[in-house]
Amino acid sequence: MAVVPFRVSGAAADQTLEQRLFQIGPHTIFIKQNPKGSGAHHNQARCTSDDLASVELEGRVGAPLGNVGLVVWQSAFVLADYLVARPPYGTWQGVSVIDLGTGTGVVGIGLAMAGARVTLTDLPHIMPLTAQNLALNADKQSLDAQVMPYAWGEDAGRLPQAPDVITGADVVYEQEHFPALISSLRMLAAPHTVIFLSYRLRGRGEEVFEGMLEAKGLFAVHVPNSMLHEEYREEAYKVLRICRL
What InterPro entries does its record include (predicted)? Predict the structure, then answer.
């Protein structure tokens, strides 16, 4: 299996955190998440990320979603697996990446392990967990990565300018945030920048989002599902490749 969940054990373990192991290409990533802090509730001792996500997004529509970044969503694995195997510039060595809505950091850390220079961004209260995961994996190899708080729609002047790649996993789930997300994409994307967004189809305005992209001068195409990890080709996971018109 690509994803192996397990509980942190021992007297010193933080009982609010669950640690998971991801195998993305040749890279093994250790990720801590905080299901309790996310507000997700599930009866199983071990559950997949989309069990948590479905509780947040389908089972509790209208519930606060400010803490969903504290758990891993499966589309993050889908995107990281796709990108590590298919660098848009032929290699990840030295490629600059900004990861929007990084959450636990799966995508950004995976690309940093592949050699990219990555800036992982999310809301300030998410960043401590992201930083913890980055440090956990940086202990195993030197990573050119940093974490920076950033809210979509804000001035992006503090972030690295003209990145080669922008990524975002499961950032398309609340229509009220679409304008701010697209505003950030427009501010950050240079003519050469390639944007990759992944999400699970939930009927929460995904088509509206794609229409808004085009209206703002961003051209999107769907990556063929045949190019995604074999476990997810028949499921409702999508990856968009976006560039400026």
Answer: Methyltransf_16, SAM-dependent_MTases_sf
